[in-house]
Backbone:
């Protein structure tokens, strides 16, 4: 058995295959989390497609005088010092969600707080420092957010942001005590089914509660769609940015019957999308290659209680859309 394992490992290495790895459960995700997400910023920046079509423009933008000053003040190089952005969210109303956002990388706390002090001198009505015990929190007020945001550093590799001081402080405590994750077992199971090497993943448990869906030309029967969504138990999404861009979406239903029923609706929606896609190509001719890929690679299927959707856009199509290839 050992020799067989070694042989398979050698074959994988020899073929250059990069196997998926089960995602880790972040111990700082709040216990109340119903959905979690992780964005692998470093992996995206190092992907072939970004290097080929976007990295030069990103670097050029960062060479500007204002950008250079900001990076120096913050002691931060976004291309080197930021690794991942993740979060744990909960709430039945999309307009009233709660959660904790976690930014991981390499940070300089002294420079960050020095930059914040300068910002306070300039915009004291929008940014301030509040204290919870020995912890300094940055309070941010903005016109485009309904309530203040609070941010702090759990350590020199972790920045925490939430709309509630208690949520931030719970994250700080979890980091200090190195507590184990307290999220629901069903959510843990979903996370472990995700690919940790993906550019982004999202997964979440469904509460069975669906808000109002306004009438629109896409859905012929809004009430039917609402009832179908109420039968959804969980959903997940995986985005991969490599030499191409692909996305996989899975929705798990209460029964095979509800999966078949909703699967039919999903297929009808995708068929409608294929009808409208050529209109996009007519209005934006440079997007024709992407539209062609979408028409060809946009699909769905029902597998037991699960509805699976997938789409892929080739690097060549993206290159043509950005004018990099003829």
Residues:
């Amino acid at each position: 058995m050992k020799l067989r394992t070694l042989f398979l490992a050698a074959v994988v290495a020899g073929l250059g295959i990069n196997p998926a790895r089960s995602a880790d459960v972040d111990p700082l995700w709040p216990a109340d989390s119903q959905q979690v997400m992780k964005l692998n910023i470093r992996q995206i920046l190092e992907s072939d497609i970004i290097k080929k079509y976007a990295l030069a423009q990103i670097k050029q933008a960062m060479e500007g005088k204002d950008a250079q000053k900001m990076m120096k003040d913050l002691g931060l190089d976004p291309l080197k010092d930021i690794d991942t952005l993740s979060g744990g969210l909960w709430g039945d109303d999309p307009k009233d969600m709660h959660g904790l956002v976690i930014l991981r990388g390499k940070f300089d706390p002294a420079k960050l707080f020095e930059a914040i002090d300068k910002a306070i001198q300039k915009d004291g009505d929008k940014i301030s420092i509040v204290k919870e015990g020995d912890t300094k929190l940055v309070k941010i007020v903005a016109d485009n957010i309904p309530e203040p945001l609070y941010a702090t550093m759990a350590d020199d590799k972790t920045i925490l942001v939430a709309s509630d001081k208690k949520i931030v402080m719970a994250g700080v405590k979890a980091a200090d005590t190195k507590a184990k994750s307290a999220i629901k077992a069903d959510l843990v199971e979903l996370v472990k089914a995700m690919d940790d090497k993906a550019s982004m993943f999202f997964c979440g448990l469904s509460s069975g509660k669906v808000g109002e869906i306004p009438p629109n030309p896409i859905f012929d029967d809004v009430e039917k769609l609402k009832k179908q969504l109420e039968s959804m138990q969980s959903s997940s999404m995986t985005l991969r940015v490599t030499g191409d861009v692909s996305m996989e979406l899975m929705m798990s239903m209460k029964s095979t019957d509800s999966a078949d029923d909703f699967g039919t609706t999903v297929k009808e929606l995708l068929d409608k999308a294929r009808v409208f896609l050529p209109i996009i190509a007519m209005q934006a001719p440079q997007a024709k290659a992407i539209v062609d890929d979408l028409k060809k690679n946009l699909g769905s299927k029902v597998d037991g209680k699960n509805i699976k959707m997938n789409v892929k856009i080739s690097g060549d199509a993206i290159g043509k859309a950005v004018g990099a290839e003829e």
